[in-house]
C-alpha cells in the first residue's frame, strides 16, 4: 500500500508552493489507491501557532485536498502532531546516543556564534566545527547527570557518499564530509526537524516522500539517520521550486501567494487546484482545464519536470474563467453570494435567484476573470447612470429617437421577461420599416438601456436584465420597459 504524507510546519499562512507539494502527494496517492497523511510539524515552538494550523487545515479543505489520516481525524499511527510525540523522539535519540551514533553538544548559543565568527576570521565558512563530536562519552554522561544542558547531535559518518535515486531528479550523490552534524534534540528536549521527520515517516510507514527540492541536503542527512537506525528509508521525489515570472522564488512581490489571499481575490478552489497541478506537470493529451477526478487519473509523477515552475498569474486567471464557465448556474450563484453581499446585493436563498446570479455571472465572466471583478460587474445590471450629455445627443439624433420610440411602442405591450429573440424580431421589423440598420439600430437602444455607449453584448444583456427584473433581488434589476421610460422622460 502506497503511503504518502504532507508535513507542513504551521509557522505562517500557507504558501501556494507548499500547497502544490500537498497536491502532488494527494494526486499520486489517490491515483495509486494509497493513503494520504497530514502531519503537523510543530516542533518549532517559537514560530508554530495553533491559528496557522487551523488556517492550514481550512485552506487545504477549501482547495479540495482531503487526507485519510491526520490530526483532526486520527488514524492508526497517531497522534499526527509532532508536539504530541516528543517522548517517541527522545527514546530514539537515546538509542543513538547509547550506540555512539549521536553525542551531547554542550556549546551554548553564544559559543556557537563565537565559533562561527572565528571561522569567518580565518576565511572558513561559518559552520559548526563539531567541537563536541569527540568528547569522552563517559565524561559527557556525567555532565548530563549533573544537570548540565546539552543538545544532541547526530554523528554524520565521515568519508562516505550518500546516494539515492530521486524519482524526479535521478541519481543524487552527497559527500558526507560536507554535511554538518545536525541537532536532533535541542537542549530544551524538543526534537529538530531532521530527526522527528525520520522517526515519523518510518513509524507512519511512509514509503514515498514528495517534497520541495530545498530539502535535498536534508534528505542526505535523513538517509544517514535511517541507516544508523537500521530502518529502510522511503523513496524520494523532490519537486522544483515555484518561481515568479522574473524567475526568482515566488513571493508577495509577485502577487498573492497565500491560499486565503487567492480565495479573497475571487479564485475558485477547483481552478487553483487545476492550475497548481500543472506547475511542473501536464497530462499527455495536453488538456489544460481539468477537474479533480481527471487530474487524479492523468497524474504521473514520473513525468514531473525537474526544471523550476513559473507561476503565471495570467494563466491562472484564464483557468479560473474556464472553471467559472464549467459550473452549473445554481452552484455558481451560491459561490457568488458572499462576494455580492459584500457589495450590498441581497436576495433570498431560492433556486431561481441563485440560477439568475449564476447566469449573470457567466455573462460577466466574458469580460472578467475573478469572482471579485464579476461581483463588481453586477452594477452593470443594477444601476443605470444616464449622462445628460449622452441622453441629449441621442435624443437629438432623429434616427436614434425614431428607433427608440418605435421599439418602446412594441415592447410596452409585452410582459417581462422578454426574450432576446423577441427583441431581435422587433428590431428586424423596425429595420424593414425605416431602413435603419446595423449600428444605427442597436446603438441608440444600448444607450437607452444602459446609459453607456459600450459594454456587455445586448444579446446577453437584455435577457439578463429581463429575467432578473422578475426576481426578488435587492437593489432590484430594472427591465427594458422601465429603462426606456426613464430614458424617454
Ligand atoms: N515541515 C517541513 C516543511 O514544512 C516538512 C518537510 C518534509 O516534507 O519533510 O518544510
| Oligomeric state of this protein | single chain
Strands ordered across the widest β-sheet: 3-4-7
What is the fourth-level CATH superfamily of the domain at 1-67 and 240-326? HUPs
Largest beta-sheet details: 3 strands, antiparallel
Overall geometry: elongated
CATH class of the domain at 1-67 and 240-326: Alpha Beta
Percent strand equals: 5-15%
Explain this structure.
Strand 8, helix 7 and strand 9 form a beta-alpha-beta unit. Among the domains are: 154 residues, Rossmann fold (3-Layer(aba) Sandwich); 50 residues, Orthogonal Bundle (Helicase, Ruva Protein, domain 3); 106 residues, Arc Repressor Mutant, subunit A. A 3-stranded antiparallel sheet has the order 3-4-7. Strands 1-2 form a two-stranded parallel sheet. It has a two-stranded antiparallel sheet with strand order 5-6. Helix 12 packs across helix 13, helix 17 packs across helix 18 and helix 17 packs across helix 21. It has 489 residues and is mostly helical. The chain contains 21 helices and 13 strands. It binds glutamic acid.
Write a brief caption for the model.
Helices cover 48% and strands 10% of the residues. The protein is built from 21 helices and 13 strands.
Features of this protein?
489 residues, mainly alpha, Rossmann fold, Helicase, Ruva Protein, domain 3, Arc Repressor Mutant, subunit A, two-stranded parallel ribbon, 10% strand, binds glutamic acid
